[in-house]
Amino acid sequence: MVFLLTFLLTAAPALGQQMDMSQMGSGDSLAWRMPPGDGSPNMAMMMAPFMGLLPAVSPFLPGPGMDVDMLPEASVGGTLPLADGDTVRLEGQVLRREINGRAVAVYGFNGQSPGPTLRVPQGATIVVEFTNHIDFATTLRWHGVRVENRFDGVPGQTQSPVQVGATYTAEVHFPDAGIFWYHPHQRAHIAQDLGMYGNIIVEPRDPDYYSPVNSEETLILDDVLLDEGGWIPFGFEAPSHALMGRFGNVFLTNGEPG
């Protein structure tokens, strides 16, 4: 029921548009195609009335015109320890990784997808130099961190988008202990889903802030939507699913399926 409601909200602006089913290619094709279902008769019956509907936005896939096999292979994000006053350089990139036996283009930072976990002490201020080498202009947002408004990463409000090939420098202060994350804030429904995000661990000043533990593991979760041919296209001008509610069929933990 939730899936059906989401699809209705997505399709509503385009009810007058009909999809040419002969153009619904498979594989990494820019043609819109139906997301994979669970193969059940009930799902097929529910989706039948919507088979001809076309989203009112352009389909998009990462790395247009690039040979996926020639892209740098993404590694699993590691941890980047930082001290007060350090400078960190984050380079947004188009990378390659294998998901369910198929090589696909993804996004990431510094050769990693997801990006590195930043580990900083509470009260630290770091300088972040973000260089954008993905397919479109974007920004970086420090989610949950009480930064200065001008460094908050909201395009059109606190800063201009970082154009492809450009670099933006921000000062990020971490007044609070806890776990936060960084991610793009323009076309986030595309870039986030493709792996352009990372965790932030702010270590508390108080050594007794957390209860004692035997070990620590940092997890970041995502669900992505693919079929046997690769990515289901994303809406470029705007999300093609209501409130970016693009339900995935492959679950990723720290960027790895399973």
Describe this structure in words.
With 258 residues, the protein is mainly beta. It has 3 helices and 16 strands. The strands form 5 sheets. It has a 5-stranded mixed sheet with strand order 2-5-10-9-7, with no helix packed on it. The chain has a 4-stranded mixed sheet with strand order 4-3-6-8, with no helix packed on it. The chain has a 3-stranded antiparallel sheet with strand order 11-15-16, with no helix packed on it. A hairpin with a 2-residue loop joins strand 3 and strand 4 (102-109). The longest helix is centred in the N-terminal third of the chain and has 10 residues, at 2-11.
**Number of helical segments with 4 or more residues:** 3
Alpha carbon gyration radius? 20 Å
Question: Strands across the major sheet, in which order?
Answer: 2-5-10-9-7
The amount of beta strand, in percent, is 25-35%
Query: What class would the helix/strand composition place it in?
Result: mainly beta
Secondary-structure element order, as H and E? HHEEEEEEEEEHEEEEEEE
Which residue ranges are poorly predicted, with pLDDT under 50 across at least 5 consecutive positions? 1-27
* CATH arch. level architecture of the domain at 68-207 and 218-222: Sandwich
* CATH classification, class level of the domain at 68-207 and 218-222: Mainly Beta
